[in-house]
Structures are given as C-alpha cells and as structure tokens.
Design goal:
Elements lengths: L6 E2 L4 E2 L4 E2 L4 E2 L4 E2 L4 E2 L4 E2 L3 E3 L4 E2 L4 E4 L13 E4 L4 E2 L4 E3 L7 E4 L4 E2 L4 E2 L4 E2 L4 E2 L4 E2 L4 E2 L4 E2 L4 E2 L4 E2 L4 E2 L4 E2 L7 E4 L3 E5 L1 H6 L4 H15 L5 H11 L6 H10 L8 E2 H4 L7
Parallel strand pairs: 1-4, 2-5, 3-6, 4-7, 5-8, 6-9, 7-10, 8-11, 9-12, 10-13, 11-14, 12-15, 13-16, 14-17, 15-18, 16-19, 17-20, 18-21, 19-22, 20-23, 21-24, 22-25, 24-26, 27-28
Antiparallel strand pairs: 26-27
Length: about 270
C-alpha cells in the first residue's frame, strides 16, 4: 500500500503489509518491516532498518546523517528501530558516526513528537520519551525508562533501567536505575510508581531502597559506596538491587546527587 506520491528507492526492502503515505520517502537499502506504517512526509533514509509494526509519523526523519563536523557521508553506519516502536511527528534519529556503528531504538518504545536522538545512541525496550526530549550522542537509556518533555540528556550519559527524568530537566551525569531525577543533575528518590506498575516484588523494591541509601547517604562517593556494597553482598541481594549497584560502580560522567547537595555544584564522581 504505497501512495502514488511516495518516493521509494528500488533497493529498499519492504515487508508484507507495509503502508507508505503521501510524499513519504524511503531511501536506498532501507528496510521496512512487515506491518509498518509511514505517515505522509515521513522520511526513512538509507541504511535504516525498521522492525515489524513500526509507526513513523509525519515529518519524522529516521537515519539522518550525524551532526558531526567533517562526517564522511559514505561511512557505513545505520539506524535500527525495534518492533512496534512509535516515532511521532518531527522525531529525528541520526545514524552512527563511525564505520559499522549503530544508533539503536529498541522494541515497544513510545517516542513523542519533536524528540531528537543523536548519533550512536542506544535506547533499550519499552522506553518512553515525551515531547521534545533531546538525547545527545552516545547516550544509553535503559529499558522501561521515562524521559519527560523538554529534557536534555548530555552526550555519553547513561539513564538506568526504570529511571524517570522529570520535565524541563538537564542531565549532564548518569542517572542510576529506578531513580527519579529532576532539575539539573538532582536525584529526588526512587521511581516507586514505575516499579509498582511493572510488578516488581516488594522485597526487590526494599532492596533497591537499601542500595540507594548505601550509595547516596553513606558519605562516600557513589562509586566507592557501590563497590563496597557489592563486596559486602548486602544490600544488593536481588537482581534489581545488584543492577543498581553495578550501574553505580561504572561510568565516566559522574552521578546525580540528592537535591540538597546539587546546589553545591555538579554531579558526584
């Protein structure tokens, strides 16, 4: 079902039941999975792979060149979008910046209007990004995370699984799993509502809470506190708690800090 005004390169691969609306563009070598839909004026550029039942809304551009000075357009990099993901109007997703690199949006993600994903970003499954969220290059966003509207995530930062970043915020450091982050690099507690909605067991929620206290309220730095807790083996007795500690034991950007400490200056190493 391809509208007469759509432009589809002969080398593009279209799965069964694909719908391509008026004036939409599908570039050379692009792959559009079965049951996917491209609304009017959607643009899926070369080296882009869409999974099954993906929806690309009007004026979204998937697979654009990275905004990097001196980028060579012949570089063989790409964008991959997982099954059933929704990219609403005016979303932009740029392909990787190096040979063989990938910008990847997972399955079952819901990306609202005006969001931007720069080169080499990795977004895991079931992530939601509200309107005009801006995600810099090389950012990682874990499964089930929620990035609220008009929020910026600095390049090379990580947002852990199940975390939520509130609206009109700026993160230039890492946000651990299951945390609620706000303002500029502030953590204001755990995303208990999100954990409850996912059906995470009460014992695991308590373990994550204990890990949070061990990391942020110990008086140590985040990394040393996380490493100490991992060595002790308690807290961190559940997979969720261990995920929290292992995340905090890694990274290069520093970490969010409790709100009353952010006023003293940047993120915590």
């Amino acid at each position: 079902m391809i509208h007469a005004t759509a432009v589809v390169d002969p080398s593009a691969v279209l799965g069964d039941g694909v719908e391509i609306g008026p004036y939409a563009v599908v570039g050379p070598g692009a792959v559009v999975g079965a049951g996917s839909r491209l609304a009017s004026h959607a643009c899926v550029r070369a080296r882009t792979v869409l999974g099954r039942q993906v929806f690309v809304d009007s004026h979204a551009v998937v697979g654009g060149e990275p905004q990097v000075r001196g980028f060579d357009p012949s570089v063989d990099s790409r964008v991959e979008v997982g099954d059933r993901t929704v990219l609403r109007e005016h979303v932009t997703v740029h392909r990787g910046s190096k040979p063989g690199s990938v910008t990847r949006i997972g399955a079952d993600c819901f990306i609202m209007g005006g969001c931007h994903f720069a080169h080499d970003v990795v977004v895991e499954d079931f992530v939601t990004c509200a309107n005009s969220a801006l995600v810099g290059g090389h950012v990682f966003i874990g499964a089930h995370a929620f990035v609220s509207g008009n929020t910026g995530i600095h390049q090379f930062c990580r947002v852990g699984s199940g975390a939520i970043v509130s609206g009109v915020s700026m993160m230039t450091v890492d946000v651990p799993p299951f945390c609620t982050a706000a303002e500029r690099n502030a953590v204001i507690g755990l995303n208990r509502v999100g954990m409850r909605r996912r059906g995470i067991a009460a014992a695991a929620v308590q373990d994550v809470k204990d890990c949070y206290r061990a990391v942020f309220l110990s008086g140590m730095g985040v990394k040393p506190a996380a490493l100490a807790a991992l060595a002790a083996g308690n807290p961190g007795t559940t997979p969720e708690g261990r995920m929290f500690l292992e995340f905090c034991a890694q990274g290069t950007r520093g970490f969010v800090r409790p709100r009353n400490r952010v006023r003293e200056g940047g993120g915590e190493e």
